[in-house]
Amino acid sequence: MPCMENFDLNKSAIVEAVRLVGGSGFRLTSLFRKVFQLLFLLFSSIFLYGFLTNALAVGSLSRLLGAGIISLSLSAIFWQLDLFVELKLKKPKLKVALPEALANPDNFNPADFLGFEAAVVVERALRIARKKKVHLNTGLILFSLISDSSPLISFVLARLLINREEMRPTVEKDLDLPRPDEAADLANLW
Fold first, then answer.
1. Region 122-135: what's the mean pLDDT?
2. C-alpha dihedral (144, 151, 170, 182), degrees to nearest 10
3. Closest to 24 (Cα-Cα) out of 73, 84, 70, 74
């Protein structure tokens, strides 16, 4: 298959997202958004209680209102960052349309068509291959796939009726991977 010779994850657009999201705070934007939303709800409910019952002094009310506004602003900022990661970084524009690529398979990179989750698995397999000084193969990709804990990968494996725990010893034996304590270090490369 000649088009597999062109497979290069490092030249695809999705690799930027994998490296940015995996190696920075971008993966925490959703968590920060939720934390600041909860803080906004907490500050605003205490403010409303103090305002309606006259239980708090005016200075305390103004600080609570300020903290609520700051929390809401930070929540909106992290919401925008989260949307940027989900809609722009994780879904880059394709350089070539799929029908055009299928018509001339020698002139395109199949890695350009990988989704974010698949690119994460392939990137992890490439790291393991570099660490073990072997070529990338389907066994390494399968090991990375069953080591991945993302909800999408778990859903796909469940739909395929693949049990990770039953498959792991077979894959490790076939790949001659280290035992589970050493395999945890390989699985946590990300």
1. 78
2. 60
3. 84
Q: How far is CA 83 from CA 27, 80, 99, 119, in A?
A: 12, 5, 29, 19
The arithmetic mean of pLDDT across residues 162-179, rounded, is 70
| pLDDT score recorded for residue 50 | 92
Cβ count near 99 (within 10 Å): 7
Residues 6 or more apart from 190 whose CB is under 8 A from it?
A: 22, 120, 124, 127
Q: Which residue has the tokens 């010893």?
A: 169
Q: How far apart are CA 171 and CA 54, in angstroms?
A: 66
pTM of the predicted structure, to 2 decimals:
0.64
Instruction: Classify the C-alpha dihedral 34-36-39-41 as positive or negative.
Output: negative
pLDDT in tens, 47-69: 999 989 989 899 999 999 999 99
